[in-house]
Amino acid sequence: MKLIVCTLALALAGAVHAAPTFDEVRKAYRSSDAELLDRHGEAIQSLRIDMTVRRLPWVALNDISPALPAAVLQAEDQRFYQHDGVDWNAAAKAAWDNLFRTRPRGASTITMQLAALLDPALQPAAKGRSWGQKWDQVKAARELDTQWTKQQIMEAYLNMVSYRGELQGVGAAARGMFGKAPSGLDLSEAVILASLLRGPAAGQKVVSQRACALALELRLPSTCSEIQLRIVVAMSRPQLAANLPPAPQVAQQLLTRSGQAVRSTLDAGLQRYAQNVLRQQLAALQGRNVNDGAVVVLDNASGEILAYVGNAGGGEVDGVAALRQAGSTLKPFLYELALERKQLTAASLMDDTAIDISTPGGMYIPQNYDKNFKGYVSVRTSLASSLNVPAVRTLVMTGMERFHERLREVGLSSLTRPAEYYGYSLALGSAEVSLLELSNAYRTLANGGMYGAVTLAPQAAAIAATAAPRRVLDARASFIISDILADRAARSVTFGLKNELATTFWAAVKTGTSKDMRDNWCVGYTDKYTVGVWVGNFDGQSMWDVSGVSGAAPVWRDVMDYLHRGQSSRAPKPPAGVLRQQVAYQPALEAARNEWFIAGTESPVIALVQDLHRAPKILYPGEAAIIALDPDIPDAIQRVFFQAQGGQNLSWQLDGEPLGQAASSYSWRPTPGQHQLALVDANAKPIATAHFQVRGLNKSAE
Questions:
Q1: pTM tops 0.90
Q2: CA-to-CA distance for 509 and 583, rounded, in angstroms?
Q3: Rounded to 10 degrees, what is the CA torsion of 156, 157, 163, 167?
Q4: How is 415-461 classified by DSSP, letter by letter?
Q5: Does the keyword Hydrolase apply (predicted)?
Q6: Burial of 7 (0-12, 13-18, 19+ CB in 10 A)
Q7: Which of 71, 693, 126, 682 is nearest to 401 (CA)?
Q8: Per residue in 97-110, pLDDT tens?
């Protein structure tokens, strides 16, 4: 028998087999996961792509505990460092024993096993390998031993061999069975892994027998009972042990192929910090029925997403992309529109008293969050303190259609229904928006009215795919709105002077709470960053006694403090066409102050004039208003209500035809087309006029 083996060895001496190089094998190796990298190249998240096998990144031999190679050599190939890829002595003994045994005994070396792992043609069929396969396996093993070092052979083998079930490679086996890196494997764990190589599908009893015998051979201090207990625990682990993933939603968006590593715009440290802060706040709010939340951080200049926390836990819902009711977070864009159209200034007085607005669906009666009314307050106070009634009055002034269009212009693409669908409650955030789009809309304010797309891909690669920033808001009005949102004194009417919105650096911020306390928001920006936070419940349950300041704001404040821990934030410079002037109120409803105005709208005195003494003016519809008919309401009952101030002793006139007295609102059945509404005196002389348009059900101009 030894003569036969020697003859085979001599025959193989001249055989040539094209073995791959070690570098080729390592380069071709693919993890079953794809890896998400942050903006600095730091690994932040893995995502399983290949579901047929579980492999983690390749592990260098120096990063594997020495206990594992020692146990593997004892179990599989004790003469590994002496033979040339084939252990002829073991082969001869196996061949002799197999002549007299019913259960064949193998003599494959580690090198021969690796050769089979590298070449699918050498894999055994259901009945085992053919003689031809065995011959080719021997030749391949000798070629590997000639070209590779023993250390390279051992490293490749440990990374490519299957250990248990879908776990392939030492990285997946160590993580999946023991919850640790390969470098941390102890002697008992190494013995268990080595015992699995001969039969990865073997039952616990068989594995225990092999492991106990191997431990005895290696003279380990562990008892067989201890090893058996560890086997039970290791083989019962349901999945790879891992910490809660910090960015699963981003990984799902960017990772598509197993083995790939994709760099994102995220900052790993900021991402983990935002996730931890959100979790801590939700834990504090657990007694108020607040279970879910999301955070997004944008770079104002580039639009890069620096943090994207889809939810605080390991769930599947993406709170950054989910649509939720916006609450008061839409008010800044309403007031910006009114300032831009010069219908209001920051100093204008708004009537915060009860208002009833007739609508086709009945009377709409908005109320403030605290159920109290403040009387006459300035636009600055109305926005900063988030008063609802002045916002609704402003929407009546600007027109629903125009405000709806403005919200679409700042990127709120979810507003797909016509303006009439939302009604006047649109001023109070009845529409559903995503945290990402809402935060980017605030970023538009931060950038002086310039809208630009956001991205998760590095900016260098995303420039070609993103349009250049475009102006969607007036720079002057945007500046004034930012100044109001940063004014803690104006905010104090509702929130007080000390709250989570009062940062130690310049920041503009707005909170919002949706109807029935289902959603709570805090969105704001500094000169460099925009941060948006949402808390609530993904299942739509109402929160209990949670406001913007107590719900989302603490997370917003902590993230902003983290971003500015080493840098300050400066207020924006006023653009051309904006001036500051001292303004006083008569009567002194608010203290005299310096106020910002768009040039041409400034006034040193804001006087409250009783309605009897006010100049006649058409309040609704405003000049160039667009009114769209509601397709869900029968034509016969659709109505538009004309409203005026100072309308005593005046009459309504529409397209030259008299309608009735203007001292109160007038109900008119709308007809499509262009119209001219006028307030006329007793001699039919126009005192005030307004041109408006009614659109038909097909939404096209008549």
A1: no
A2: 25
A3: 20
A4: --S-HHHHGGGGGGT-SEEEHHHHHHHHHHHHTTTEE---BSS-HHH
A5: yes
A6: exposed
A7: 693
A8: 554 444 444 568 99
